């Protein structure tokens, strides 16, 4: 949970939501600040799916997206559209693809949302870790992004993976990491995640000779050992290095702060 605001969207204070409301660290944060609330969700059950839509005007597209979100992700899930693109291979007058995402409304999430809703702080929104990671991977790729990009970042919840095809997220996973300091285990987890994703990504056009870029943001203590498991062209950064490249003003010592 982030409280406060600033021009770089780097909140003034934050606290991890663990257990049941109210966490002592969270009380301390809220006692100090009465700014807007931003909830960053890194739930393991996040889900992404691509949906084909006809080409429509903006008002009609929004109405159709709302209907599709209710259909694929019924209440009490929180759902949204993370982006759209022209359907690959179609003529200009063809349809579009939308990336739909959900945060399942299980009991723990709903308990926190109800509690936060009762606070005087104005809610600014809920953001998914997968969406934030996708935005960072795109920005770090620069002007010449690969057709396929895999991003990985270590947070207290685990190793978050995002896979993008032509800039649009198509897959996210949260991978358990018992020892966040074990670089070899993290590197092997990244390598294994790429291989395990291939069958699913094939439905979106992935092939063994595809152009791939891997970006990983790991603790400095794990980078050297993890490097041996990554492709030669992989971009491996510590959170402070990634923050500097992204132009963030605050020092980020961990993946959660970076997101």
Largest sheet, order of strands side by side? 10-9-8-11-12
Summarize the biggest pleated sheet: 5 strands, mixed
How much β-strand is present in the residues?
25-35%
Structural category: alpha/beta
Can you give the mean pLDDT?
83
Helix content, binned percent: 25-40%
User: What is the 3D form?
Assistant: globular
Q: Uncertain spans, ≥5 residues at pLDDT below 50?
A: 6-12
> What's the alpha carbon Rg, rounded to whole Å?
19 Å
- Termini separation (Å)? 12 Å
The number of E-state strands comes to 12
- State the oligomer: single chain
What sequence of helices (H) and strands (E) makes up the elements?
EEHEEHEEHEHEEEHEHEHH
Counting DSSP H or I runs of 4 or more residues, the number of helices is: 8
Descriptive account of the structure:
- The protein contains eight helices and twelve strands.
- The chain is α/β, with parallel strands linked by helices and 259 residues long.
- The strands form three sheets. It has a five-stranded mixed beta sheet, sandwiched between helices. A four-stranded mixed beta sheet has the order 2-1-3-7. A three-stranded antiparallel beta sheet has the order 4-6-5, with helices on one face.
- α6 (220-227) links the parallel β11 (212-217) and β12 (235-237).
- The model is unreliable at 6-12 (pLDDT under 50).
